[in-house]
Structures are given as C-alpha cells and as structure tokens.
Amino acid sequence: MSPPSFDEFYLGSRQRLLRCVYAVTGDMQDAQDVLQEAFARAWQNWGKVSGYEDPEAWVRTVAFRIAVSRWRRAKNAITAHRRHGAANAVRPPDENTVALVAALRGIPEEQRKAIVLHHIAGRSVAEIAAETGVAEGTVKARLSRGRQALAQLLRTESTGHRYA
User: Fold this and answer.
1) What is the rounded distance in angstroms from the CA atom of residue 128 to the CA atom of residue 134?
2) According to DSSP H, which parts of the chain are helical?
3) Sign of CA pseudo-dihedral 98, 103, 109, 115
4) Which residues contact 146 (CB under 8 A, 6 or more apart)?
5) 104, 107, 134, 153: least surrounded by Cβ within 10 Å?
C-alpha cells in the first residue's frame, strides 16, 4: 500500500492534531499557528515523512516542539523585561528638529541628500561624490544651494525665531 498524498494526510489528520495541540497550548490561535507551521514542515519533507510508520506523530511532535520554543522565547522576553525594565520612552523631537525636517522636505532631493550626508552622516565631499556618483564640484554646489534654501525656509517671521 502506498503512503497517502499530503493532501489526504492533511485532510484526515488536521482536526485531530488541532485538538491535541490546542489541549497543550490552551489557546486556539496559538494552536492553529503552531500546527500550520508543523504542517508546512511536513509538506516540505513529505517524501521522507510519508514513509514514517506514523506521520501524524511526527507532525504532533514538531508542533509540540514549536510550541515549547515559543514559550521559551516568551519566557525569556518576560525575564529580560523584568531584569532590564521597559525600554526608555522616546522623547518627542524638539521644535528645531521638526523645523529642520520640514525645511529639508522643501528643498530638491539632490540638495537634501547632500545636506543630510554631509551634516548628519558626517560624510566628506569626496565620499558624497563617490556615493552619489557625481563630481565633487556638483556636491559642493548642491551643498551651497541647499544651505541657502534651508536658511530661507528656516526663517520664521511669525515667531521671530531664526533656526539657521
């Protein structure tokens, strides 16, 4: 007698396996996720798994191992959280940063790229030229024009502040 096709195996065992995995995990969504992954592994290795005396036991074992692995990851995450605490809350950007980002959006992309690479990423004119594939003179021109455009955009008449 030849082994069943994967489709026949799946249709004949999925409910039974789902009940078993659900009983172990205690959560239907987790059981479905774990079993889906176990069936995917069985399908990938069906040539080998179909030859086993009890392919269903193989899928069940794989599903249980996946569930245990998830529990360990969750437990480790909880332990790390207890040990190190919650991640520090990120402060909102200050108004100068918000104004700079808004102004950067208002200048041409090539100028913006040159400004960011030079002033934020700390790249030299030669490095920017190599990275963007243009001449150093072009980079210098973009930096100069970009700075002028930013200076204009960062002037605010309503608050009396000047961020440039």
Assistant:
1) 8
2) 6-25, 28-44, 46-49, 55-84, 95-105, 109-115, 125-132, 136-154
3) negative
4) 107, 108, 111, 112, 114, 115
5) 134
The helix-helix angle for 6-25 and 55-84 (nearest 10°) equals 40
Residue 75 CA: distances (Å) to CA of 18, 67, 68, 78: 24, 12, 10, 5
One-letter amino acid at 77 equals A
Q: What is the DSSP letter of 120?
A: I
Confidence of residue 156 (pLDDT cuts 50, 70, 90): low
Tokens 């200048």, residue located: 107
pLDDT at 50: 94
- Residue-wise over 116-138: b if at least 16 C-beta within 10 A, else e? ebbeeeebebeebbeebeeeeeb
Judged on CB neighbours under 10 Å (0-12, 13-18, 19+), 63 is: buried
How much is the pTM?
Answer: 0.51
Contact indicator for 12, 4 with CB cutoff of 8 Å:
yes
